[in-house]
Amino acid sequence: MSTKVQEPQINKTEPLSNDEAKWTQLNKIHWTDQTGKSRIWEMASRKTRGSTGIDAVAIAPIIRHPSRPASTIVILQYRPPVGATCVEFPAGLIDEGETPAEAAVRELREETGYEGKVLDCSPTIVSDPGLTNANMQMVTVEVNLREGDKEPEQHLDEGEHIERVVVPLSELQNCRCKYKALPLGRRPALESTHPLVFFFTFKLTISSFPSGEG
Do residues 61 and 112 lie in contact, with contact meaning Cβ atoms separated by under 8 Å? Predict the structure, then answer.
């Protein structure tokens, strides 16, 4: 991990040609709508999609400890496209030859230091289908800790600056509120919380309600 010497900032934004782009490309879709009319749609896609047909994984960790409440981990990471620090789950692209489950275990270890076993992989999901065909699977990973275990070391790539935050599952709905008290330079953009964090919170919320059967 590189040593931080300042807060990140956007210096310039300019057009990017497909020839220059390493990670993404723009495509023009010619399609026919429900009335038989021919139409054009502009889209962005990743150049990194492998043989699985799945671009990436997001990891929802469940941390279990003998004397602490069940928790999860969110990360704070500056994202240049929105010019803000975002509240996210650990995530990353799937390498060629990896399964989503294998990628999830690897990315969790790299970004947080924690290691665990995969409990569940979601169906393939998209988050912005009007703009891109980029997709991912959400993987739930269980991490079992013992008394006395120290916080593990992250294994970040050069240029990655990721802050990890352990949040009790019971407090996940309110995790954004704590950041309002941080100094402005370290405060995440609350509107830039990744939608999967909200989805996981919703899943936890509805699971706490009785089914109404019987």
Answer: yes
Binned at pLDDT 50, 70 and 90, residue 198 comes out as: low
Alpha-carbon span 209 to 211, nearest angstrom? 6
Token look-up 């990140």 returns 8
Q: Are 112 and 152 in contact (CB under 8 A)?
A: yes
Q: Which pair of structure tokens corresponds to residue 33? A: 């709508």
Q: Which contiguous run of DSSP H or E holds residue 76?
A: strand 68-79
User: How crowded is the C-beta side of 201, counted as CA atoms within 13 Å?
Assistant: 19
Q: What is the pLDDT of residues 29-57, one digit of tens each?
A: 999 999 999 999 999 999 999 999 999 99
Residue among 115, 104, 90 at smallest CA distance from 54 = 104
Alpha-helix runs per DSSP H in the chain: 100-112, 195-207
User: pLDDT tens digits for 162-176?
Assistant: 999 998 988 877 665
